[in-house]
Design goal:
two-stranded antiparallel sheet, globular, nucleotidyltransferase, 2-C-methyl-D-erythritol 4-phosphate cytidylyltransferase activity, IspD/TarI, IspD/TarI_cytidylyltransf_bact, isoprene biosynthesis
Amino acid sequence: MARPKPAIAAVIPAAGVGKRMQAAIPKQYLTLHGKTILEHSVGRILGHHQVAALWLALDKVDPYFSSSSLNSSPLSDSAVKRVDGGSERAHSVLNALQQIDATAYPWVLVHDAARPLIRDADITLLIDSCLQAGYGGILASPVRDTMKRGKATTAAVQVAGTVDREQLWHALTPQFFPTRQLCQALADALAAGVNVTDEASAMEWAGQQVLLVEGQADNIKITRPADLALAAYFLDQQRLEQQHLEQTGR
């Protein structure tokens, strides 16, 4: 008899301003095919059949959310809960985790606000892989390019050496962990002054195993101005794929 699947919560930290986008507003509120990047990202995560509730960590004085569709029907019901974000991503995620009942939601997905192209199939693959392994993990993609380590000089950034790309991966999101373990790992790491760049780094520091699950390369994070056009292209391609599947009945 198959084990019942656990209820899953999700967290999206969206309190940052995205300075590298060089935009007048935070990047999560830039428009992509008629919707904000944040609306795309929330819709993809909350649209997954195993995600029961989502906590959205926003800046305390966010002036943009109130005019977003996320603040109105149908997403403004009990499935989406707003919490205050912190000074860094890790603080925002921890603030959200501290509001989640880990008994009701023993596992949690954490997803970047600026990754609007996450595929439903990749979310399923991550969840199923981690539940089968019995510990958390992340979506990731293998490094394909030659990797260089740089060094800054007074005139320019120069190559300091070549890094072996064997077993190097680009960390993506969502990242999926037991709720209590992740909450404790983040709290302890921040208290110790550890530089926590993602949820996996907190779990690694806590000595926990972290599974690598290969995801699709079009799950890009919108960080710089050129990324917005690339995201629009990938979104078009995903829609064409979906239309093809619907037409062929596959």
